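Researcher: First entry.
Model:
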Amino acid sequence: MRWLVFGSYDVRRHPRIGVLVQGLRAAGDQVVELNVPLPLDTAGRVAVLRQPWRLPLLVGQLARCWLLLALRSRRHRRAIRRGSAEAVHGVLVGYLGHFDVHLARWLFRRTPIVLDHLASAVGTARDRNLAERGGIRDRLMRMIDDAALRRADVVVVDTEEQAAALPAHARGREVVVPVGAGTEWFAAGGRAGSAGGREDDAEAPGVRVGPGDPPGAVRLNPVAGHRIQPRRDRRRDGDPGPVPARLRVIFVGLFTPLHGTVTVGAALARLADDERIEVTMVGTGQDFSACRRAAAGNPRITWYDWITATELPRCVARHQVSLGIFGDSGKALRVVPTKVFQGAAAGCAIVTSDTGPQRRALGDAAVFVPPGDPEALAAALRALADDPIRVAHLRAAARRRALDRFYPATVVAPLRQRFAVTGAPPCPYPGGAVASGDEMFPGAPASPADPASPGGVTTLGGRPGPC
């Protein structure tokens, strides 16, 4: 099949679309990206909702993106009209495509449109306490969702719970595609495994470098309050390292209510007297200040404003435990966050909230705690610090689970199967089969390198993107 991946998405901020692109290519499909990133991240869009006078900025930026997308799509539209061999069989609109899907439908009227509906506008607004149920903003967000969903032939969601939350008119057109993780996360996990899961924790002159510092990362010095540049790591990948004396834990996120970072901060405060546990917190956002205040008594936390998308997989892979989400909102109970898939692919033990979607995704390859319960989270981390053998087993189990279920070519299989019923020609690669024998990941589907599809957290104006 031939796909056109279309829209104003930004794969650096929202790695989900990058995983889909990698997966479709690995499955043997031809993929062309027609992408003009909108220079306004999720936080900026939320600011428009909170401060409507910013709306002209969003409209102006979106209009520019649409003009360029329309101009650059002419070749593809001509190929479709002529029925040439270069004509695409489907248009995939990338995440945050609530508006882009309207342009796609207008430009490609006779081509099946697939909308990656990873998160609804109304769900995001409610999760961030920006819209009361039944209020004006709530109704506006619902109208935006409904209009976008009506334009799509196939609606992609990430969990069964998200599918059940779709409006009635979208039922029957949905397909569940797990978020998955990009190949760069599997590569980082493979390197960390061959190196014994540890690299030097070097000391920069006069200041302690936090656990898991990657080369080139910028850290906020919690004492002096200014940015420092840690020394570049001197070890080579592949060198064996000693078994770490401390449990290294990492959290990456936007500090939204969905992530439950206030719960994380309260749990870390309860671990202030446990010198065996070191924690790295990456990102900023809505609940950052509250989280930091809650965790202020713990001296073994390193805080990062951001880590580049290129370095983030390697940084996470140098830790033993990756934290998921701990919020108790309706949305938090319906999703499996990107960070869970990425942490598992990187070879970390996963600790996350006990919800139906996450239990189905991870099985016995994770530690689950009740949502919104800092005491339970602290107890879980203490138990892992007590039992390094269990940590090793959990890391191996998470990695196996990721290789079996979260690899890009695996997660896109439901989409390819569902898309076949929309009228696209039969796939020339039956069942999506591809050559196996990936040397780095034995037993995993082979996938070509795709440097244009990085994952993880990046920045625009100093703010991290969702992970």
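Researcher: Second entry.
Model:
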Amino acid sequence: MLDSISASNTNIEQLTDHLFRQESGKMVAVLTNIFGVANLALAEDVVQDTLIQALNTWKIKGVPDKPEAWLFRVAKNKAIDQIRKNKHSESFDFTENERQLLNSEYTINSSLENYWKEELIEDQQLKMMYICCSPEISPESQIALILKTLCGFSTPEIAKAFLTSEDTISKRLYRAKNFFREHKTKFELPEKEKLQERTSKVLNAIYLLFNEGYNSSSNKNLIRKDLIHNAFMLGKLITDSPITTNQEGLALVALMCFHAAREESRLNPEGNIILLEHQNRTLWNKELINLGVQYLNKASAGENISAYHIEAAIAFEHCKASSIVETNWKHILTLYDLLFQTNKSPIVALNRVVAFSQIYGAKKAIKELEKIKELDNYYLYHSFKGQLYKETEEPEKALNAYKKALKLTSSKAEQNMIKGKMAELNS
């Protein structure tokens, strides 16, 4: 009997955790709209209280038929309690019209009910995302805010995802929220003339979030599916809205589709990295690839070509190739040349050399690689150099490069990959 109760409570805890991930961002966005951006912390507290109440109540009474609706109703009632408690306070950033409505006991419930309409929740999430990406806030703080407010991540989870301390994340979040208070930030999208610029900031935050999920800096999990899922969700908020959708955003979603399609083939059952040439391409998700093609076609309708367009085109070349040999490396190199013109990143330069080596061979590629001086402390630079030295039959140089790469990563999956390459030198 005790075992069945314990199992039931465990299931409820798992369901609550799942719902927290799925619904907390919606609730925080709606409550921030109600309380004002200056009171973002209060919105988060109300959501936390709602989830705690759900966990305690459901363990006793069971899970309701519509748990999401239950959460929204409880959160709305808690918001009403807060408003009644603080309705005369000047700390809330209500408009004059909202103050008049909320001051009346007869209209407070119906007024707040409008905020929770399904068709309006995504709009409020979208606004919340743009607020998180205020240009005055650092990119690191933008991502921390998005994960905390819209994705339901705790401060320890954010710190773990980006290999930093909880104190550092707490300070980033505090500074951002303090900025909102000091500048009396409004719950609204930027003005039309500033919308495109801010959208680029939002897309950059989503891109960084996806990259962390696709190739995590965590020393335990190379792939973070939760981060990938949330990056998709946020990207679709941008592209699904007629106000914010643009070719750049469509290209980013296409890029995420193409990369995520290869997700299941990148690690073996032991969690070790499978390099592109050895991946089982039958495991690649064809539905996601086709969806990426649809987004890329839509993205190509405009005249402007962004870095996301080029990266998506490169990823598509890999997706449509039946093998590493059949890959159109000349087209990929051309695309990398074009990408480097818009983004002179050393990482782009490194990826370009990978394509270059497939066409011109390892010896010429080593010369190209040594032109990139900024990546001496990057493990992939030395791992790739080791691979090139192996191909030129210089095992001692290859081993030294692998040894240096091994010291530059704390990821177990990446370390095991390098050790595997070292073992191949002796075989």
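Model: Note on the second entry: Confidence is low (pLDDT under 50) at residues 1-7.
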